[in-house]
Amino acid sequence: MVERKKVLLRLDPAVHDALARWAADELRSTNAQIEFLLRRALTEAGRMPREVGRIRGPGRPRADAYDEE
């Protein structure tokens, strides 16, 4: 598995709260929601690198999900 980059991100508290609520509505963590939105923005701008792996879907992984890797 590829090691994930760690980034310090400073957000307005109201933006963070709205993002956290949105993430909860879609069964994602706040970090996963930020990555989802960044990937969508990169794709829409035509800037998504070809070598980028797929992002895991929302919610808990299936019990057999780790057997597939």
TrEMBL record:
Xref: Gene3D superfamilies: Met repressor-like
Region (Disordered) residue spans: 49-69
Parts forming coiled coils: none
Top-level taxon of origin: Bacteria
Gene Ontology BP term (one): regulation of DNA-templated transcription
Protein name, as recorded: Toxin-antitoxin system HicB family antitoxin
